[in-house]
Amino acid sequence: MSGVPTSTSRFDKRRARTRAALIEAAQGLLVEGRLGVPIREVTERADVGIGTFYNHFASKDELFAAAIESALSQWAESLDAVDDGTTDPAALFARSFRLTGRLHRLEPQISRVLLSQGHALSQSPDGMGPRARRDIRAAQEAGRFLDMDLDRAMVVVTGAMIELGHLLHERPGLDEAETVDGVTSDVLVALGLERAEAERLCAEPLPSIDATAGLG
């Protein structure tokens, strides 16, 4: 009896590793913009057989969707891991934006996958988008942000985050913290804060990124 759980556990772990290898291969192809490659190239990257591929995914499109979902979920977990007792919704938004900006350099693979899907940052049910909408709405209700249309606010937020990510990747010499916090301050002003208040929030200490990222 004792051997059954061990065998099952080994099978599940092996299956999980195979699925993770396929998703990682797909994320690499997404970064390269090579969605039209044959399944054989995906399996070669993941070092698995084509038959094994179909044990996990019905099609290449399903795999790419899973790769994007995985990136968004990991991104979300890094934000959810932070809880410093902050209740001010404007401060919560600022902290999440600053942490997300830093993750472009901390987790470049995940960042590039998300940037390759730009609009998903705003519209996905996971990741930064729904959290930003939640905090912006709460800040509006608290009188901290302007009462602008939420979709318009997300145009400002998502556009800034996408361009920030590309900027950090393309110009590795830029100071990450200074650049991210400067853009965050600009976004906060666009959402309705006074510049001095925006800069105050961006000067608040952040929790350790390494401790909160939780990305593998």
3D structure, described in words:
Helix 5 crosses helix 6, helix 5 packs antiparallel against helix 8 and helix 5 runs parallel beside helix 9. This protein folds into 2 domains: 55 residues, Arc Repressor Mutant, subunit A (Orthogonal Bundle), CATH 1.10.10; 145 residues, Tetracycline Repressor, domain 2 (Orthogonal Bundle), CATH 1.10.357.10. The chain is built from 12 helices and no strands. The protein is an all-alpha fold and 216 residues long. The two termini are 34 Å apart. The C terminus is likely disordered. The protein is 73% helix and 0% strand.
Set out the fold topology:
Layout: H1 3-32, H2 39-46, H3 50-53, H4 60-80, H5 89-106, H6 108-116, H7 120-123, H8 128-141, H9 150-170, H10 176-191, H11 195-202, H12 209-213
Helix pairs in contact: 1-2, 1-4, 1-6, 4-6, 5-6, 5-8, 5-9, 5-10, 6-9, 8-9, 9-10, 10-11
Short characterization:
With 216 residues, this protein is an all-alpha fold. It contains twelve helices and no strands.
List the defining traits of the structure above.
Arc Repressor Mutant, subunit A; 216 residues; single chain; mainly alpha; disordered C terminus; Tetracycline Repressor, domain 2; 2 domains
